[in-house]
Amino acid sequence: MVWAGWFASCQSGEAGADWSELGCGRCPAGLTGMAGWAWAAERSPSGRYAASTARHAPAASPARAAPTSCGAAARCAATTGSTAPLSARRQMGPVLLSSLLLLGLGWAAPPDHEVTYLPGLSKQPSFRHFSGYLCAGPGKYLHYWFVEAQSDPQNSPLVLWLNGGPGCSSMEGFLKEHGPFLIQPDGVTLKYNEYAWNKIANILYVESPAGVGFSYSDDKKYATNDTEVAHNNYLALKDFLRLFPEYSKNDLFLTGESYGGVYIPTLAEWVMQDPSLNLKGIAVGNGLSSYEINDNSLVYFAYYHGLLGTELWKDLQAYCCSEGKCNFHDNSNLNCTLKMGEMIQIVEESGLNIYNLYAPCDGGVPGSMRYEGDYLITHDLGNSFIRMPLRFSWRQNLFRMPVARKKVRMDPPCTNSTAPSMYLNSPEVRKALHISPEAPEWQVCSFEVNRGYKRLYMQMNEVYLKLLGATKYRILVYNGDVDMACNFLGDEWFVDSLCQKVQVARRPWLYTENGENQIGGFVKEFTNIAFLTVKVGLRALGARDGAVGGCAGYQGCSQGWVMSAAPHPHCQPPSLSYRELATWCPQTGLLLPSPCSAASLRTSLTKSCRGSARRSSCSHHPTRPHHRHLAQPGLAAARLHHGPAMPAAFSPGWTG
């Protein structure tokens, strides 16, 4: 119990006792005995024990008031600033509930972070949830909202979720995608989400980086980059586990969407070097994995979805392609650049919903920007790097506008953030969530963060190969098949480019709706990585899409990997042809050989792995279809607003 030891050293008279190696700092000279105890206690995660110990301290050394940000400021104040990946000095915060240890009360979640009453709910939840701040480096405080699993949280996995942008809030994922409460159009009412991820896992939503949502820094400077954000997210995760040590041994999964395609793998690089973290896998939904591949594939996606006319398609082939290869990404041919401008105008600026091609554009045709009161609203997140000088010139002029710092707001295109903004900015909700008075007004995306963000990774191949090289992590790349921001074709090309051995050829997965089996999407399995599609886009979803996503999520819970879960009502046994291979197992929601047991699950997996085709995806040789015992692997929906599924990283169905 080194934390208790640090307290003891201050209390016993070891003035200047140095515990900085653990990120604890040094006991100030003159603060010994009970005064030293008081000094140490107020540097605990919440500082809430300072008052109780102050009566023991000399009058000249009164305990200070509890710091802001629910103790994150105190934890951050003790950091040394080291950036070595495994250095203990990177461990933020001096102690985790050290006073409780001294009092013999054991470990526990921080009670002052618990949300005891949440406005907008007709009935408060039966599960616990917490909101507060995590230390992400000296003077940086990331807001988090943590929801415990609705059943057996002690043994359920811990899942970290990050929305993308860069610069967009994970509260969007919480309130409009897969959180336990969905915001209603009135901006006041919350409705329970039938397909919430926390039905089967503990979910940690973090607003990252500083400057996004309710997250902030002392210096209010929010220019950052991929490397710094990955490090900050790692420190925040470590700080969370200091606050909630009871989850330190749970299986850990890192998940995100969109620019999370960069956030999540780069965070995993840090986490995989830390043996104290029980990382099991990552899942990225409609992720940005390669600018070049995403831009090149978008042209094919647009043409074969009927968005580009024949003449434009012929011109693009003539000016952008040679020797059987097309470069739509950074072609220096002026004619190619001009034709790509026409393509972008159709796909991104004509009013099509870039997150769901077949859904309406919320708010109507937006254009590149619009005015709303005193604010200039821009919808360009800056993630397309297609060579278009005029477009980049427009962006630079926007960034240089004198009004930019305070009067520009960034909203993702074809989305309506009015309801979550109204809800999260209400004084009652800010109080319930323990939001710091230093935190800015909540916005779905931060223009300042996005504008000042330096993208360092143009493609993620090296990071993915590093994770795959460890041979112990499960990776899922999943896409809604009508999302154009980060389209499924590009992510499939990206996964293929990793050249992993194919375990199971591409095949459909099923769900049940109104008593009938339906195809939910397609999945292709490699060694330790899978690519999955879902027949739906990111946003503007209805109940039917929720059924698809919910089914995929519940199918993803298996006793053999993470946890057991009862099958969802929409997730019934698939067709008879699959029934002949296996028996429906209600304990896990999967098809297994009889009897339904963890042992039979392991046996079926072993047999199916041995029997599968093990050719490289880069060999260009067809692989024979292989009917596995697990007819419906655990699969995830794309970035869904009303019922996305738990990522298939929780499934045995696609591992090598």
Automatic annotation (TrEMBL):
UniProt enzyme class: hydrolase
Domain of life: Eukaryota
Family stated for the protein in its record: Belongs to the peptidase S10 family.
Annotated protein name in UniProt: Carboxypeptidase
InterPro entries: AB_hydrolase_fold, Peptidase_S10, Ser_caboxypep_ser_AS
Its EC number(s): 3.4.16.-
Key words, A-Z: Carboxypeptidase, Hydrolase, Protease
Subunit structure: Heterodimer of a 32 kDa chain and a 20 kDa chain; disulfide-linked.
Residue span of region Disordered: 612-631
A GO BP entry: proteolysis
Composition-biased stretches (Basic residues): 617-630
Gene Ontology MF, one: serine-type carboxypeptidase activity
PANTHER family in the record: LYSOSOMAL PROTECTIVE PROTEIN (PTHR11802:SF502), SERINE PROTEASE FAMILY S10 SERINE CARBOXYPEPTIDASE (PTHR11802)
Entry function: Protective protein appears to be essential for both the activity of beta-galactosidase and neuraminidase, it associates with these enzymes and exerts a protective function necessary for their stability and activity. This protein is also a carboxypeptidase and can deamidate tachykinins.
